[in-house]
Write a structure and sequence with these properties.
- InterPro entries: AAA+_ATPase, ABC_transp_ATP-bind, ABC_transporter-like_ATP-bd, ABC_transporter-like_CS, P-loop_NTPase.
- It is an enzyme of class 3 (hydrolase).
- Keywords: ATP-binding, Hydrolase, Nucleotide-binding, Transport.
- Belongs to the ABC transporter superfamily.
- This protein is of the alpha/beta class.
- The protein folds into two domains: about 5-95, P-loop containing nucleotide triphosphate hydrolases (Rossmann fold); about 140-375, P-loop containing nucleotide triphosphate hydrolases (Rossmann fold, 3-Layer(aba) Sandwich).
- Helices cover about 30% and strands about 20% of the residues.
- It has helices spanning about 5-15, 30-45, 60-80, 90-95, 185-190, 220-225, 240-250, 260-270, 285-300, 315-335, 345-350; strands at about 50-55, 80-85, 140-155, 155-170, 175, 200-205, 205-210, 225, 305-310, 335-340, 355-360, 360-365.
- The strands form three sheets. Strands 8-9-10-5-11-12 form a six-stranded mixed β-sheet, with helices on both faces.
- Helix 1 crosses helix 2 and helix 7 (about 240-250) crosses helix 8 (about 260-270).
- The two termini are about 40 Å apart.
- The relative contact order is 0.14.
- Bound molecules: adenosine-5'-triphosphate.
- The site of adenosine-5'-triphosphate has 20 residues, from helix 2, strand 3, strand 4 and helix 5.
Length: about 375
């Protein structure tokens, strides 16, 4: 019997562990993990014989990663599907692949990450030995209290944040972890002023901070910057990287027209990208390079606080560590306050003073080091 489109859609979604209720949502209303599963469902809809996947598990928590890995294995055997997958995650590769091809660049040999080993052995960026969740005494910084954010769709309401409290003292680095869909991005977007909460308060150094970004002063807009999970969210595909970096410099009157090229070059340099990348478009950059360009865009306004959403999720261990090293360097040299959302508790634990766990729309407690966000 030929399934009706609705049934077929439902079955595809179930196959990819997506609740049927999401069928009526727009992609922008899905969490990062849900969007990845949706992309997989879309690819499967045409009943392909060969599936080419680019980092299909990036940004997923450990439980979802295992589910997707098992699903790919099952589809491969049950449907005779050939799966070709690019991945930085050796664990996924080990569970999924019959054959592995390792690619290397001329100057950077392929170095597989061994689970359980230090993140990048020998690198200056190896997690620092700091007592986890050590008490810190820093100025007030950004504080959020009792945030409620609900999304309504066709009579169904989803409470993404249900009384979330959060504090990022000035100069601190704070991690936020939690299972996929628990509201991490929603919390960051609310702090950034991009998502209006139904209730709750935000303060900056003890003074009220308007929730919507458009009601914040130009100076506050400059001081708080958001680096999205998908760098393309910050990089307009129709603009060169140079034009993207010049825009906030112009809008916030950071430098005049004459100094613009030098400042754009300086921003690229600060994130370890060559100056001639100013002439490239986002699609001409690798994932890691795009992530750096996205950070450079956020740095253009000389912010005091960077809210980073899964900025390392699609990067290999060495590049992920390099990006976090860069953020740690910026924190030290520019007195930046950092908030890092990530599933990789082990990784961000080495770069933050405190890692919070988000569950049921609330920040429930500091996460223990090495705690698996998915098991929370
Ligand atoms: N604009 C929106 N409209 C409707 N629902 C939304 C919207 N934005 C987020 N949601 C829902 O709110 C929940 C939390 O989403 P959010 O993106 O904050 O999760 P997350 O913890 O960042 O997930 P991930 O780790 O997968 O990126 C999800 O169930 C998502 O479907």
């Amino acid at each position: 019997m030929v399934a009706t489109p609705t049934k077929a859609v439902e079955r595809l979604m179930a196959d990819c562990h997506l609740p049927a209720s999401l069928a009526h949502h727009r992609p922008g209303a899905l969490s990062g993990g849900q969007q990845r599963r949706l992309a997989l469902a879309r690819a499967l809809a045409r009943r392909p014989e060969v599936l080419l996947l680019d980092e299909p598990t990036a940004g997923l928590d450990a439980a979802l990663r295992d589910e997707i890995t098992a699903l790919l294995r099952r589809l491969a055997t049950e449907h005779g599907l050939a799966v070709v997958m690019a991945s930085h995650d050796p664990d996924v590769v080990e569970k999924c692949a019959d054959m592995v091809v390792a690619l290397a660049t001329g100057d950077a040999p392929y170095a597989p990450y061994v689970p359980g080993a230090p993140y990048v052995p020998g690198a200056p960026s190896a997690p620092r030995s700091r007592p986890p969740n050590a008490p810190i005494t820093l100025p007030e910084g950004l504080r959020a209290e009792n945030l409620h954010v609900a999304f309504s769709h066709r009579g169904h309401t989803h409470q993404a944040l249900a009384g979330a409290d959060f504090h990022a003292p000035t100069g601190s680095a704070t991690g936020i972890t939690g299972p996929s869909g628990c509201g991490k991005t929603t919390l960051l977007r609310t702090l950034a002023g991009l998502q209006a909460p139904q209730s709750g308060t935000l303060t900056w150094d003890g003074r009220p901070l308007p929730a919507p970004v458009r009601k914040r002063s130009r100076d506050m807009q400059r001081r708080i910057q958001f680096v999205p999970q998908n760098p393309l969210g910050a990089l307009n595909p129709a603009r060169t990287i140079g034009a993207t970096l010049a825009r906030p410099l112009r809008l916030h009157r950071i430098v005049g027209v004459r100094e613009m090229p030098a400042r754009v070059g300086g921003l690229l340099d600060a994130v370890g990208l060559p100056g001639d990348f100013a002439h490239r478009y986002p699609h001409e950059l690798s994932g890691g390079q795009r992530q750096r360009a996205s950070i450079a865009r956020a740095l253009a306004t000389e912010p005091d606080l960077l809210l980073c959403d899964e900025v390392t999720s699609a990067l290999d261990p060495a590049t992920a560590t390099a990006v976090l090293d860069l953020l740690a360097h910026l924190r030290a040299t520019r007195q930046l306050t950092l908030v890092l959302v990530s599933h990789e508790t082990d990784l961000i634990g080495g770069y933050t003073d405190t890692v919070h766990l988000l569950r049921g729309g609330r920040v429930v407690r500091p996460a223990a080091p090495c705690e698996d966000a998915a098991s929370a």
